[in-house]
Amino acid sequence: MRIEASDEPLYYISVAARLVDCHPQTLRTYERQGLVEPERSASNVRLYSDEDIERLRQIKRLTQEMGVNLAGVEVILNLLDQVEELRAGVRRLRHELEHGPPRLKPAPQPEVARGEMTVNNHKAG
Question: Which domains does the chain show, CATH number per domain?
């Protein structure tokens, strides 16, 4: 059974850095580069979610194991995000094929005022 990563902020930068085995300044650099966007507390403290931690591990793999520079990492992550969006769209379309499209809301009922039928404040005629 696979447990889905939480997108709820859980970790301070020092804890996130330990989980990913890198220096907190590296995480700040990744944030400045737009590679990760941790939540901020009311006092502006960075808070990393499980999803952020997984993304940081992915960045580390790309840079350290595969030798990709940060500009390349950005391109790769953007492409992976697009692929995931497309997969979600395919899942939604498959669901609609199997179960039908989502139901539309019922049309508004005509208002009946003093024995006269009106639709959107106009007498029906």
Answer: 13-101 (1.10.1660.10)
Spatial separation of the C-alpha atoms in residues 6 and 106, rounded to whole Å: 36
CA-CA distance, 95 to 83, in Å (whole number)?
A: 18
Rounded to 5 degrees, φ, ψ at 52 are: -60, -45
The answer to whether residues 11 and 45 touch, using CB atoms and an 8 Å cutoff, is: no
pLDDT digits (tens, 9 = 90+) for 111-122: 765 555 555 555
Alpha-carbon distance of 97 to 101, in angstroms, equals 7
111-113 and 116-119 beta bridge pairing: antiparallel
CA 108 from centre of chain: 34
